[in-house]
Specification:
With 219 residues, the protein is of the alpha/beta class. It has 2 domains: 64 residues, no CATH class; 138 residues, Ribonuclease H-like superfamily/Ribonuclease H (Nucleotidyltransferase, domain 5, 2-Layer Sandwich). The protein is built from 6 helices and 7 strands. The strands form 2 sheets. It has a 5-stranded mixed sheet with strand order 5-4-3-6-7. A two-stranded parallel ribbon has the order 1-2. The radius of gyration is 21 Å and the shape is globular. The termini are close together. The N terminus is likely disordered. It comes from Ambispora leptoticha.
C-alpha cells in the first residue's frame, strides 16, 4: 500500500547557509538607476523642465527612486517617502531599520532583518518556535537578536509596526508603515522577503522530495 512519509524534518534546514546563498545585487540597482537617469535625460532633451519630473516608488521602487535621486545631476522632484532618517540624523548619526516577513503566513518560518549603512543581519524563528512563543513574541525576540548581531552598533533603531521593542542601551522607535517612510526599514523589508522566499522554496522542495522518496521506498 502506498504511504506518504517524511523521513527527514524540513524544519531543521540550516538557515545560516541560506543567508550566504542569497544574492542581493546592489550593482544591478545602480544599473537600474543609470537607466532611469537616461530616461530623465531624454525627457529633459525634449523640453520638459527637470523640476517637473517626479520620482516615486514603493519598496524596491522606493530604493530605485532614492538611488536615482542620489546620482542624477538634476534637481528632480522626489516624492516624500523613505526620508524619515533625514529628520533624525543630526541626533542619531547611525540608524538601523528592522522589518519582518512571514509573520502572517500559514506555514514556514519568520524572517527578521536589520540594516545599518551597508551591513545587515538576519534572524529566523522556526514554525516550532512560533507555535511556542506565538507569532508576535517570536518576531519581537528575533528583532532584538538581529539588532544585537550588527557589528556596527546603531544609535537608533527604527522598527516597522506598532509594537514596542526594547533593547538595553539602544533607543528604538516603532513606525507604522515604516517600509514606506524609512530607507533602512525598506531595505530590511526587502532582505527579509527575499530570504523568506528562498527558505519557503527550499522547505517546499525538501517536503516534496521526502514525500517522493517515501513513496518509492514503500512500493
Amino acid at each position: 500500500m502506498e504511504q506518504d512519509i517524511c523521513p527527514s524534518n524540513p524544519s531543521r534546514i540550516n538557515y545560516e547557509e541560506i543567508i550566504q546563498s542569497v544574492h542581493l545585487d546592489y550593482p544591478q540597482l545602480m544599473r537600474a538607476a543609470d537607466y532611469v537617469n537616461e530616461i530623465v535625460e531624454e525627457e529633459i532633451a525634449l523640453g520638459i523642465p527637470a523640476e517637473k519630473i517626479v520620482l516615486a516608488g514603493y519598496s524596491q521602487g522606493a530604493l530605485l527612486t532614492l538611488a536615482t535621486a542620489l546620482t542624477t545631476k538634476h534637481r528632480l522632484v522626489v516624492r516624500k517617502s523613505l526620508d524619515l532618517e533625514l529628520n533624525l540624523w543630526d541626533d542619531y548619526p547611525i540608524i538601523a531599520g528592522v522589518d519582518e516577513a512571514g509573520r502572517g503566513a500559514l506555514a514556514g518560518p519568520i524572517v527578521v532583518a536589520a540594516v545599518v549603512a551597508v551591513e545587515y543581519s538576519v534572524s529566523f524563528k522556526s514554525s516550532q518556535e512560533v507555535e511556542v512563543k506565538n507569532p508576535l513574541g517570536a518576531t519581537k525576540e528575533a528583532m532584538v537578536e538581529v539588532i544585537l548581531k550588527l557589528q556596527t552598533k546603531p544609535n537608533l533603531c527604527l522598527i516597522d509596526g506598532k509594537e514596542e521593542v526594547k533593547i538595553e542601551g539602544i533607543k528604538t522607535i516603532s513606525v507604522i508603515g515604516g517600509d514606506r517612510k524609512s530607507i533602512n526599514i525598506a531595505a530590511a523589508s526587502i532582505i527579509a522577503k527575499v530570504i523568506l522566499t528562498e527558505v519557503t522554496y527550499l522547505l517546499f522542495f525538501a517536503m516534496e522530495f521526502a514525500t517522493y522518496t517515501g513513496k518509492v521506498m514503500n512500493r
